[in-house]
Amino acid sequence: MMNKYAIIDTGGKQLRVEPGRFYDIRRFALTDPNILRPNTKISMYRVLLICEGSKIDLGHPWLSNAIVRGRVLHPCFDKKRIMQKIHYKKKTRKKLGYSQDFIRFVVDFISSNRKESISYLIPLS
User: Fold this and answer.
1) Whole-prediction pTM value?
2) Whole-angstrom Cα distance, residue 38 to residue 104?
3) What tens digit of pLDDT does each residue of 7-59 get?
4) Residue 35: how many other CB atoms lie within 10 Å
5) Over the Cα atoms of the chain, what is R_g?
6) DSSP state, residue 79
7) Domain ranges of the chain
8) Contact (Cβ atoms closer than 8 angstroms) between residue 1 and residue 53
9) Pairing state of beta strands 55-58 and 47-52?
10) Residues 120, 69: contact at Cβ < 8 Å?
11) Contact at 8 Å (CB) between 74 and 23?
12) Which of 8, 27, 49, 65 suits a disulfide with 101, CB 3.0-4.6 Å?
C-alpha cells in the first residue's frame, strides 16, 4: 500500500491527515452541537497538499479538485487550562479555567479529483 496523506486547513491550523486515522479539531464555530453527532459525514475542501507515493500535488493556496472525506467519532474536550491572576500588593488571587471543545473525526477518503469522490458516496454493487 502506498503512503498517501494530505495537509488540510481547518480551524486556523494546518493538519497532516492520513486515511484510517483519527484527529482532534476545534469545533466549528457556526455549527449547532446537535448537527455533529457521531457518524456524521464531513467533507473538507481546503486541501493544501496531497502526497501519494512520490507524486505531490501542491495548491496555491488550495487544490481546486481535492477533497478529504471523513466521519465524526464523538465530541471531546481538551485538558483544562488554568489561568491565575495574582495581585501581590492587594493579597488577592483569582483562578480561572477553560476547556476547548474538540471534535474527534476519522479520515475515510482522500481524493485529488472529485470524480473519485462520487464513487465514495454511491456504493457500486
Assistant:
1) 0.72
2) 9
3) 999 878 899 999 999 998 887 655 566 667 788 888 888 899 999 888 888 88
4) 10
5) 19
6) P
7) 4-112
8) no
9) antiparallel
10) yes
11) no
12) 27
